[in-house]
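quick one before i forget lol
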Amino acid sequence: MMLEHILEDLESTGLLLKTDPKLPNVCAMVAGGPVSGSWWAHPKSHEMFRVLCALAEHPDVMVTKLVSGKDTFVHRALWPCVLAIGMSREPWQMGALGAEDRDLLARVDQEGELTTSGRAAGALEQALLVHGEQVHTDAGAHAKRLRSWRQWIEGSGVEAPEIDASTARGSIETVVKYLNARFQGRGRLPWPR
């Protein structure tokens, strides 16, 4: 029941954060109000974890570091925008990358998918250059599974976006501006205005 309600909200708003002090977010929806501190310490943390996992696995949901560098659940309707931005390789995405970051991006592009960890993985994910997903290795360590957007498209069975990056950014900006105004939030996007 909770998952259905959250999916309806996601479809309505287009975006939900995992957690945020003001903007609509899954943890607050499960808790029935704002969550202070780590959601892992909340009495409903197990329910939050269950809902977060189910939401991330839903076929109409993408999870990426879109708003304020946080895990953001994106409804299928906005996927073309995220994909157009992610695949654009614009100066704001590429300009701050160091040699290690560029090497890792080249490996992801070549292999399509790889499991790694470290700062470079986070930098690529924050710049929306790859799709990242947290995984546990066989040794029990946390790592990131990075996928090129082309690989993600193939695995998701969706079409390549037919929208240009500028229009896509404008669409996402409109949604975040609306959410910020409605909820007195401070959500920010990774590209400069």
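fyi The chain has a mean pLDDT of 93.
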